[in-house]
Amino acid sequence: SFRGGLAQTVSVSGCFFAAISGSSAATTAALGSTMIGELEKKNYSREWATGIVASSGVVGIVIPPSITLVVYGVIADTSIGDLFVGGLIPGIMMGLAMMMVSWYLAKKNGIEAEGSFSVKAVLISFKDSFFALMTPVIIIGGIYGGIFTPTEAAAVAAVYGVFVGFFIYKELKFKDFPKIIFQAVTGTTLIMFLVGAANVFGWVITNLQIPQQVASFVVSITSSPIVFLLAMNVLLLFIGTLVNASAAVVILTPIFLP
User: Fold this and answer.
1) What is the 3-state secondary structure (H, E, C) of 87-115?
2) CB atoms < 10 A from the CB of 229, how many?
3) Would the pTM of this model clear 0.90, i.e. be above it?
């Protein structure tokens, strides 16, 4: 077994959910609702649990199908398929990097590995979770195979999840539906409120032309490609604290791409 194994599981799960949702907010919400409590039970601090879930959610806009990559492809007139291919390896590298950090922090904080690695246990777990693991396969295969759009994939995944829960794992009951729907509405409302507020704020600073002014300053300070890229990354880090990724892409791509 690995030190920080549960935190590393969150990182891997982030990659899987990213391939399902294409959204950082959705990936973070899905992981946070199930994993933060489990991490705290295993002696992870709430700060660490929140950090690893939020970091894993970031992969949602890198691993395809990514909403942000679609937005960039439209704005920059670039092949979205090529962008999806280009995002896969960096997304996996991000997941691996977060796993390494989790291992280091677990070692530093004295969190011991639980149990021992067993091929038999892995095979049994794979057998038990096979139908659940088929969810990203159906979604990604359906999207790339041209069977349905990413939006339609969400509906297919929901129907498939209900079917599996009712008839295969038999953990879902009709009496559970009101609670499930209420939780889904509550979680979605919180996320969309944050996204909506970010969009309003983005509209305000866009009308004040703050990103354009800062970007123009970055472009003017150097002629070195390397220094320019470093300065652009610092700017994107700053802009990312103010505006959501898709809005930042819409605002800054026409400035930086030329």
Assistant:
1) HHHHHHHHHHHHHHHHHHHHHHCCCCCCC
2) 12
3) no
